[in-house]
Design goal:
The structure is a homodimer of 621-residue chains. Chain A has 621 residues and is α/β, with parallel strands linked by helices. Chain A has 5 domains: 87 residues, Ubiquitin-like (UB roll), CATH 3.10.20; 73 residues, Roll (Ubiquitin-like (UB roll)); 137 residues, Nucleotidyltransferase, domain 5, CATH 3.30.420; 157 residues, Nucleotidyltransferase, domain 5; 100 residues, no CATH class. In chain A, 29% of the residues lie in helices and 25% in strands. In chain A, helix 14 packs across helix 18. At the A-B interface, helix 5 and helix 6 of A face helix 5 and helix 6 of B.
Amino acid sequence: MINITFLPADKTVSVPEGTPLLVAAKAVGIHVETPCGGKGVCGKCLVRVTVGAVDFDGGWLIGEKLTAQGFVLLCTAKVKNEDVIVLTFADINREAGKFADSLGDYSRLEPSLIPSGAAEFLVKQTRIMVPTPKSGDGLSDLDRLQGAVKAALGGQLFVPLYVLRALPETLRQQNGKIYLVTYKQDGGFTAVTILAEKKPLLGVAVDLGTTTVAVSICGEEGVPLAVKTAYNGQIAHGLDIISRINYASSPARLEELREKALGTINGLIRQLAQEQAMNPEEITSLAVSGNTTMIHLLLGVFPEYIRLEPYTPAVYHVPRYTAAEIGLCAAPNAPVDMAPGVGSYLGGDITSGALCTSLAQDSEELCLFIDIGTNGEILLGNADFILGCACSAGPAFEGGGISSGMRASAGAIERVNINKETGEISFSVIGGGEPAGICGSGMISLMAELFRAGLLDAGGKFVRENFARKNPRRIVENGRNAVFVLAESGGKTVTVTEGDINNIIRAKAAIFSACRVMLKNVEMDFSDLARVYVAGGFGRYLNMDDATQIGLLPRVPRERLVFLGNSSLMGTHMALISEKHRKKRDGLARAVTYLDLSDEVGYMDEYMAAMFLPHTDSRLF
Amino acid sequence: MINITFLPADKTVSVPEGTPLLVAAKAVGIHVETPCGGKGVCGKCLVRVTVGAVDFDGGWLIGEKLTAQGFVLLCTAKVKNEDVIVLTFADINREAGKFADSLGDYSRLEPSLIPSGAAEFLVKQTRIMVPTPKSGDGLSDLDRLQGAVKAALGGQLFVPLYVLRALPETLRQQNGKIYLVTYKQDGGFTAVTILAEKKPLLGVAVDLGTTTVAVSICGEEGVPLAVKTAYNGQIAHGLDIISRINYASSPARLEELREKALGTINGLIRQLAQEQAMNPEEITSLAVSGNTTMIHLLLGVFPEYIRLEPYTPAVYHVPRYTAAEIGLCAAPNAPVDMAPGVGSYLGGDITSGALCTSLAQDSEELCLFIDIGTNGEILLGNADFILGCACSAGPAFEGGGISSGMRASAGAIERVNINKETGEISFSVIGGGEPAGICGSGMISLMAELFRAGLLDAGGKFVRENFARKNPRRIVENGRNAVFVLAESGGKTVTVTEGDINNIIRAKAAIFSACRVMLKNVEMDFSDLARVYVAGGFGRYLNMDDATQIGLLPRVPRERLVFLGNSSLMGTHMALISEKHRKKRDGLARAVTYLDLSDEVGYMDEYMAAMFLPHTDSRLF
């Protein structure tokens, strides 16, 4: 019989050789979804074999790189003649939104971009043998610890007060055999925690968006164990960056926004830790990305000067602060790595996200990287140069300012289909079940389908006569504004107004015109681009044809378009677990030249020209 | 007319040449006590001329060294032909206890031991010109500040979060011309505060005693402006170190003791700051001394292992923590310099105090340094070796465990006189007025006088037949214990019991026998000592003849005995204001060899032999 241990559930089962892993998992109550019925084609049941090997021939589906790292599909892998340890990932349907589907995101990346091997957190865990206290040696506990660390790691150890408090008991309980979590600082080492026994290191990656906050947690294997998202608690004080900056005009209000951001992040960290049956204090590494304003608000630094000429923030490269200093829920001395920003509206979220693109590969191929959040942030470049700019898209793509809008989570309509002949409308809902609202990808899909079916005109107005013919009961006139009824069920109505449509048009126009201005700036065109990467919190998938149909993305050959999902969170996670990626990200940040669109004379003209579906210049589409 | 400015009151008056400084001071309402009636003999009206010079020929009274540093007596100095700035010190009678008389303490030191010149705090204040923000320079406020500091100071600047928060406003208000308070750390600099304009630096020195806490405050002139003392708020949880350690056996109780210590210290800091019309946040340097247990309790570190074999504390050399980390009331990032301890009962209080002795002078002369607190700590040595030990004296010398005992503050009987013929008893009270109790020096004086008058026997019992003859109404029998009525006035009675006498005898026996054991250990005798320094919180003055009479101190030629007062506070203050003294103190701490009295077989015999007045071995006295 062969022993199979499933982590993080830590359940072991003995099975005969040749047993499918899926059978073994079910035998100990491990539930992994297999939407394709175990046929090995949907790829949803990805797990990782961390010790030992199994029989698996589905490499064609998940790719060589993942296979080389021990990833297999639970449904088709079979037990060989050796014991194995299998790492499973959080139930992807637990929160049926896109962010919960984190491995799906990774699968969109070039495998060479993904860190391989065990996580290289900022912190390391080292076994230290501290000599026992001796009468008359004149050495305190701290003296002996520092001596042992100098011998083991070759540097001076700084011990923060929190750690000093735990030192005497831990040393004596363990008879001097302790584990020390440290990170390098100023040529020496700083202690984070002192442990009685070796514990798996835990890290969290935080993407602090203006509208949406996403947090992932991972262990030493380096794979996200689970991801959670929530709306940023600051939303009550303004939907976009400028209104947040305006709100933060007094110390009390700044503190209020700081606490709201911390509350949202810490709530997600606590949920994640609880699900992993961990104490948040076991988290010893953190990586955080956010736009420049969000980072100022998180730190409690006045963001006022970001929006005033000459638009100079207080900080781009945040010094290495600890979780306790910032207020994050983790080991108090856990170091927090914050992605560097490069402009007043070009923050660490896009420098992190760039790790998911060919910009991180020193490639000669020109690429455009569009991260569509409440602010749109855009990079254009290759190994020789990187140009960056930002534009205000507003929260529409994340469901903000849309009457039935919602985040891409369970209950959101994420895709719409309209039969051009019959006008019949169908849609899919994240997580199945009744629709509760519509997310960004749903809005894009809806508008593209309405436009294709002749139900929406180039100016963003519903074509009433066509509705009258095909779907008379779907349109309700409300003064000068028409309301489209997308779904009605169980007393809940999902409606879309012309105002909602207009919000999406303004958002897509801001982004498209910013891309045009950047390309013009280097005398290039969309046709010069080898890759167009799109990131953002639209939903699980963004249909590229739909996005092109409404003029959000240019019409370029389909294979050049890559949808990344939440690239900021993925990049932050990669920086959390890889020294190489932290260095690469910091290098990318230094390489970016910031283009201020408000200084670009042609921007307003481009913007006005893009306020149509898909655009006034049909040659572009 | 000549202008005279008095600091810290910041009052200026114009007077003719030749005007006595005292007259000028009175003209602007500056009150400085002149107990001798302005005759220039008591030395109480010491002030310091920091700019300019005055006519003064009282150098014979205050010594050449002080005169060279600009100190003069206000009552006899006269205005010359130039403007001057005169620094006055806190009213010494405000709290009439010894500690308020800080300059008196300094006058007992060898002038060469006292730091001269302006204070060299751990922090420095530097004027920094930060370039104004420019559009498109890609530099945040922090980037520009760090660049300017690198140019000005030649090192990397770490900016804590508190300071980062103040950065954007201060830079813009001052158009980049700011003052930065920093200290050196790990090869770079750490920012403490950022100031809009140059401000005098403030520092505080803290002596955290088991029974008494003393705090002094000083500015850049380096002279203590005022000193305050209070009983340690932990006293309710045990009078001596062992009972405090026992009390701190649970995290909640440890935290309680930590808060009590902080409460006492911070209360004194707030009082001092208020009197100087300063905000405590303006304090940017702190130095703290205390015995090993007190430092553990202040830091919230379990002290348990100090009292358990092999008596190993968690820490001797406390890392450089900030005021906020420890919880001290000051600028949050102010660095706290803590004096290193050398043994479980030999703490930073005595390594600081050693700065007041010839041990700090690399002298070949052998000296004995006795710091009598609740624990007695003793050093014996010279430039070649230092031996250190500790013994438990209990709180009796600070008024603890004595029925009418009190701290050496206003209302305490500090000296007693008994007419051997008539038996008439008189005494002096600190601050004048009615007696409220008796302090350490009062008890020593009383016991010496009773013994000399034949009213107390060698065993510490009142000689009832002699009392009956001379002072029949002074003795009240209370069972087997007699009560001696020292003073009666206004309903308040100050009494001393045989139990009180016995507490002092046990305390003095512990100390005297420890000295004997140390000397024997190096095969020496009291006669080999060039100096015997005595420190402690007895009162303003300790009468050396009285101390010798009761057997606390050995009978050595009078000129070899030096009473230092609170040497721990003085040494802490010196370390606060002088880099040379910090280094010297740390060097002294490294040089000490700790002698554990509990390992010394002869100690108990010595102790028992010392339980008489003055001693069983009369050849010693």
